[in-house]
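In this section we walk through a basic example: taking a raw amino acid sequence and producing a predicted 3D structure, encoded as C-alpha cells. The instruction is simple. Fold the sequence below.
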Amino acid sequence: MTLTRDAILAVTDLPETVVDVPEWGGSVRLRGLSAGAAAAWQTAAEAAEPIEAMCRLVALSALDLEGRCLFTEADVAALGGKSMAAIRRVFNAAAMLNGLGLSDEDAEKNSSRVASASASPSPSG
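The resulting C-alpha cell sequence is shown next.
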C-alpha cells in the first residue's frame, strides 16, 4: 500500500515504553521524540556537559499519567541532583527509544564518560 501525505501525517508514530527505576521506587513512562525535537536535543547535547545532556533527554522523554511532559526545562538542573544510576537507566531507555544509536557498548562508554565527568570537582567547589 502506498501511503498518502495525509495518511503519513495522521499516524501516531512516537513509540512509548515504561522503564522500572528502583532507585525512585517505581517506573517512568517515556515517549520517543519527534525528529525535530531529537535533532534539537542532539545539537544542544554537543555543547552541554554530559550529565546535562542526559538529564535533558530524560526531561524531554518522561511523561505523566495523562501523556504530558513530566518535566520542564527548569527541571533539568534538578534532575542532575538525582541518582546517577537512575538517570543512566532512564537515559539509556530514552536513547534507545529515540533511535539515538546507542548500542550497549556505546551506552557503557557514555556512562563511563558521564561518571568520570561527574566525579570531577566543579570549578566553584
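Looking at the output, two observations stand out. Residues 106 and 119 are 20 Å apart (CA to CA). The chain has one domain: 17-119. In the next section we compare this with other chains.
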